[in-house]
Every structure is written in structure tokens, then in C-alpha cells.
Design a protein that fits this description.
Blueprint (H helix, E strand, L loop, with lengths): L11 E4 L2 H10 L5 E4 L3 E4 L3 E5 L1 H5 L14 E6 L2 H9 L6 E7 L5 E6 L5 E6 L1 H10 L4 H8 L3 H12 L1
Parallel strand pairs: 1-4, 5-8
Antiparallel strand pairs: 2-3, 3-4, 6-7, 7-8
Length: 162
């Protein structure tokens, strides 16, 4: 018997106010609605939000945790500085932490959505690689600095030349 990999649909997060959450993901993270059923919204970014999650799956509503800090939605942004400026103009953003840079040279910021799910926005790793390449750093050294395979950096370099 041959077992084929099961197809993964998408992450789905429980929300308490569909309209507030939909607006947050559209306005803060530029997500486009792919399908809106009125109680479930799928975004073209590949995730969904769900109203009345506990009722649908038949569990006690009090068991739904907020601010559990054990899951996040991760996004990458080419214009990280521009995104940070945009974020400053949005009232009510609760930060997990301010922007910071990791050892692999990527800058990230984490904050909570309206239902206290963690959202991470990281600077695109292709942009990070391009930054070093534009400074004349070799492909091999860039790969070492950003802790990515040489092949990834070569791909970034090839796209830069297009």
C-alpha cells in the first residue's frame, strides 16, 4: 500500500469578533480576503479566522485560551522600516517585544492581534541577503552571516541581476 502525504489546508485561528479581526488583518498586514462565509474568513496569505470555534467543534468556551503565547502567525515584509512606521500609526497595538535583530541578521517585531494571538513580522530574508550582497560581501560570507544555504544566497543574487 502506498501512503501519500495528506494535503494541509491552512492554519485556522479562533476569533471573538470576525469583523474586528478581518479589519486588523486587512489593514495592518495587507491580507486580502479570499473567501468570506460570514463566520469563517480565508485570507489569500494562507490562513483563516473562525468565529464561534468552540461551538463548532463542541468544546467548552472557557477552555479557549487567550494570550497563550505558544503559537504565532509569521509574515515577511520587504520594506520592514516602512512597516514599522505604519505600525506606529495604528492605535492599540500591544507589542510582544519591540523590533529586534537576530544572529542571522533578520529584524523582527512581534505583537498581538485582537484576540491575543502572536503575529510576527520579519524582514524578508531575501532582502537581508541582498543588503549584504549590495555591500560587496561574497555569497559564501553572506550565507554564513544570515545562516542560510549558499544556494539561497545565489538565488537572491541571480534575481538581483534580472
Amino acid at each position: 500500500m502506498v501512503c501519500l502525504a495528506m494535503k494541509f489546508g491552512c492554519p485556522l485561528i479562533a476569533v471573538t469578533d470576525l469583523d474586528v479581526s478581518k479589519k486588523f488583518y486587512q489593514e495592518v498586514l495587507n491580507q486580502e480576503v479570499g473567501l468570506d462565509l460570514g463566520w469563517n474568513v480565508w485570507f489569500s496569505g494562507g490562513f483563516a479566522i473562525q468565529l464561534n470555534f468552540a461551538d463548532i467543534i463542541g468544546i467548552d468556551k472557557t477552555t479557549i485560551k487567550t494570550k497563550s503565547n505558544n503559537f504565532e502567525l509569521y509574515f515577511e515584509e520587504d520594506d520592514f522600516d516602512g512597516f514599522l512606521e505604519k505600525l506606529k500609526t495604528i492605535s492599540g497595538i500591544e507589542y510582544v517585544h519591540p523590533p529586534k535583530k537576530y544572529a542571522w541578521q533578520q529584524r523582527v517585531v512581534r505583537f498581538y492581534d485582537p484576540d491575543k494571538h502572536i503575529v510576527e513580522v520579519g524582514e524578508s530574508m531575501a532582502v537581508v541577503a541582498k543588503h549584504f550582497l549590495d555591500q560587496g560581501v561574497s555569497v559564501e560570507e553572506t550565507a554564513k552571516l544570515i545562516q542560510h544555504p549558499v544556494e539561497f544566497v545565489q538565488m537572491v543574487q541571480a534575481k538581483t541581476k534580472e
